[in-house]
# Entry
Amino acid sequence: MANGGKRQARKIPEATVTRLPLYLRSLLEVANDGMPTISSERLAEMSGVNAAKVRKDLSYLGSYGTRGVGYDVEYLLFQMSRELGLTHDWHVVIAGIGNLGHALANYAGFHERGFPVAALVDADPRVIGTEVNGIPVRHIDELPAIAAGRQIAIGIIATPASAAQEVADRMIAAGVSSILNFAPTILSVPAEVSLRKVDLAVELQILSFYQQRRTASDRVAQVAAEVAAPPAT
Amino acid sequence: MANGGKRQARKIPEATVTRLPLYLRSLLEVANDGMPTISSERLAEMSGVNAAKVRKDLSYLGSYGTRGVGYDVEYLLFQMSRELGLTHDWHVVIAGIGNLGHALANYAGFHERGFPVAALVDADPRVIGTEVNGIPVRHIDELPAIAAGRQIAIGIIATPASAAQEVADRMIAAGVSSILNFAPTILSVPAEVSLRKVDLAVELQILSFYQQRRTASDRVAQVAAEVAAPPAT
DNA sequence: GTGAGCTTGTGAGCGTGTGAACAAGCGGCT
DNA sequence: AGCCGCTTGTTCACACGCTCACAAGCTCAC
# Structure
């Protein structure tokens, strides 16, 4: 029984994991204001979720609250940072230095939040050798050499869709095990690699759907006022 | 019974809505290759989801498949585009022309997919009057006038977090009813406004969590081999 | 020391989403 | 015309996530 009660086994639901960063941000804000403790209700309001959900989510981390009082902000911050793996920096490589890659490389928030951009790579000879935000753009062929220097765990793909899969494969071969994909394509990666995707067009299309519904139902209501028979169903 | 079987009332689950754009993209690809029909299995593979899920999702749109054959690509494309509200363009306004806003304004994908950027706004006098991708940056105070010209339904917020809520309020006041928020903050909007958010730092922190889990469990296994008595919760 | 007032942590019920399995139905072949 | 193979559309069982509600437990006042 070498592992005893180590909470490593406690499995945190995926839905909870996606909310932890929100809580973290709220906690940082509260800590900045010098508040020593915070209630689940207040934290819920700041994070835009239900208070019961907050309590249940936090309970997965452990019993870090005090009944009648709330959560100690500093302590909870520490525990959450530890759980999220934010106690040290994670170096990031960005592939594809086009419009988006350029903006990402310039985004100061990455470094501030513990994700320093360690390298930029591309395949286009016209951008290789240039610098963005003080970081030189190198050829993607050099990825293994770059990764060999310092540990790079996270890769961001900002290439065109056509190149994304190959870039992902090469990143993984170079030791990257977490990928954030901005290219509008489905990547296939081994099970032990984490993959998240952000697709701007998809987000807009989802918004479009609900927008369409609203305006369509307006139109229907208008038509229904003229025509006698309203939609059944 | 003027409306007959009008499916307006059929409510499509949220989870399904988020997948429709993926199917759409796959269908466009297939249509480009000239394939007349596609099976749910193939569509599932291309979109990275389960085949049964594809069939169920598509069934919400109506019975557009043919048993033994599959789905008519062109017809399904048409129906899906209609459902997603993509039969006409949606004009978009981007607020905050910093790193990210700049990149978004330059992103050709928006226009290609039916979301032309109709206007750019900012509050910083240094960027107002400049042009990005041929579009002039105007002051956010002019938003009502800009929106009065052509119907602008969708707003993209790429401002710093501190300005995001006010920008959202002003967009809504100007008639925008769908917002895509890139600022790392929780926005509160009326119920009739659709809101989606993309937070780069949050995405990285989620990846960090799983990365941490992987490396931590490696380390635990290592430590457990050396130490006899582990910490008891 | 005791009671009042909060706030956490959690158990139970409910709704939604998922995946497997299968009947229904279409097209083509003989 | 009838049969066979294939694919859809749907049903069912299950897992997951969400919310409510409340007992447990802490602090503070008196």
